[in-house]
Design goal:
mainly alpha
Length: 295
């Protein structure tokens, strides 16, 4: 994911150079983008789900087949007997923990879906608990787990604020003093470099410290840009791109870390649902970014 996001940032820089030195015609790039999107849609028809998703859903045979396919692509030859899910769930089914409740028909009630780490505000890392075999990853099951609900609320807030800030910075580039091409290239380079740097900070310092520090960097770079219209020409030419680099680096790294943090906070059976909810909240707030940029 990080490599793909870096390529995305470099693509914008290449487009800026194209418009800067070759031509301002954009229709050809629009047609290329539409063609590539069509190819992606067609390609997704044959894209398999991850083995972890199948495993979480209790579809062990399909999980095994995907693992065998991955091994084949990687040039490894393993037999089906090397992948055995026969005893999966036995330990959980016979558990005497307080969370297991025996129903009137003698079956075991669905336990908490996960005993994952404390909410996002916590910096302590704990391994994700295995998801029950019969869990289907529905919104109702997600809502029954208090920890997941708190994580979802905090993640939605962070995702919305970061998404709004990220796109607001892009829409405001034309309002920022200085050369719009230079500012755009600086922003794209920041987007490219900040992805792996942000990932490194996340892994070394944890979510809370990394996100706080990156938001601080973004704020440090954004304030000088606000008053750039009243500054001298040298300030606009040299200092504004530096501030834009800091601002975009902090916001972009935070945005990328949210994807990584999401995978740590939610079991894979809920990952699609939780990410969809976070994106809905973020897109709603981001709608106002171009309006605020024109104020």
């Amino acid at each position: 994911m990080t490599i793909g996001q870096m390529v995305e940032g470099l693509t914008v820089a290449v487009l800026v150079l194209y418009f800067m030195y070759i031509t301002k015609d954009w229709q050809y790039w629009q047609m290329i983008g539409a063609a590539l999107q069509f190819c992606i849609i067609v390609g997704m028809i044959w894209a398999p789900e991850s083995p972890e998703f199948y495993f979480a859903k209790g579809r062990f045979e399909e999980s095994k087949q995907v693992l065998l396919r991955i091994a084949s692509v990687n040039g490894r030859s393993i037999g089906e007997e090397a992948i055995c899910f026969d005893r999966v769930g036995e330990e959980h089914a016979h558990s005497d923990s307080d969370e297991d409740t025996i129903l009137e028909d003698g079956s075991v009630a669905t336990p908490r879906v996960s005993d994952i780490s404390a909410p996002f505000a916590s910096n302590e890392k704990k391994p994700k608990a295995p998801v029950a075999k019969h869990c289907q990853g529905t919104l109702k099951e997600l809502w029954q787990d208090k920890d997941l609900v708190i994580n979802l609320f905090l993640m939605s807030c962070l995702w919305s604020i970061t998404s709004f800030s990220f796109y607001l910075g892009k829409f405001q580039l034309k309002q920022v003093a200085g050369d719009i091409f230079i500012n755009s290239i600086t922003s794209s380079i920041a987007d490219t470099v900040s992805r792996p740097v942000g990932y490194w900070f996340y892994k070394k310092l944890g979510a809370r410290v990394a996100m706080t520090g990156l938001f601080g960097v973004a704020g440090l770079g954004s304030f000088p840009v606000i008053w750039s219209e009243m500054a001298s020409d040298n300030y606009r030419k040299y200092f504004v791109p530096v501030c834009l680099f800091l601002m975009n680096s902090g916001v972009t790294a935070s945005f990328g870390n949210l994807y990584i943090g999401h995978m740590d906070l939610f079991p894979v059976v809920f990952s699609t649902t939780s990410m969809g909810i976070c994106n809905i909240a973020a897109r709603f707030l981001t709608i106002f970014a171009p309006m605020v940029a024109e104020i």
